Amino acid sequence: GCELECGFAIDFTGSNGDPRKPGTLHYIHPNGHDLNEYEKCITSVGAIVGRYDSNQQFPVQGFGAKFYGQINHCFQVGPTEELHGLSQVLQSYRQVFSTGLTMSGPTVLAEVIDLAAARARSAQDAAQQQGRQAYHIQVILTDGAVTDVEQ
User: Fold this and answer.
1) What is the Cα 27 distance to its own chain's centre?
2) What Cα–Cα distance (Å) separates residue 26 from each residue in 62, 127, 148?
3) Cα–Cα separations (whole angstroms), residue 117 to 32, 36, 128
């Protein structure tokens, strides 16, 4: 057998714009139903890849935000390391904005990539011991203004 897991890393740097302002990537519409660009991506990709994910658990990290004055290049989004189903992913994403987060910068991807790679290696090692394969797809949602491209 083959296991497939999909994870998301979401850019919370200031260049994405204020989530209260229409037209920004993180804009949270007051009606609570209209999806912003990041939510559309999570829903679209997650729905396709999720069909092949047996446990529907999605690891979600954020990057590029300050919490209480400290910049964080990789932080957990949601109450647990993995979120069950796309509805919990979307709910946890929206809740991040009420946590004391300050959208900041720079856009540093190395830590979220390293974490995803470690998860993939661990899952593959465990699967190989059982004669199976495991793959991890990491979706990185960003506006493209990445500062650590060389890493």
Assistant:
1) 16
2) 13, 36, 22
3) 34, 28, 16
Count Cβ atoms below 10 Å from residue 36 Cβ, excluding itself: 21
Residue 121 has a pLDDT of 94
Mean pLDDT by runs of 10 across the 151 residues of the chain is 89 91 92 92 93 91 92 95 96 92 89 94 91 92 75 58
So what's the pLDDT on residue 150? 62
Give the span between the Cα atoms of 21 and 23, in whole angstroms: 6
Whose structure tokens read 């910049």?
71
The CA distances from residue 80 to 32, 113, 131, in Å, are 23, 19, 29
* Tokens coding 79: 């109450």
Q: Which amino acid is at 130?
A: Q
**Inter-axis angle of helices 37-50 and 85-96, to 10 degrees?**
160
Q: What are phi and psi of 136, to 5 degrees?
A: -125, 125
Q: Quick check: helix, strand or coil at residue 42?
A: helix
pTM here is 0.92
The pair of structure tokens assigned to 133 is 């394969």
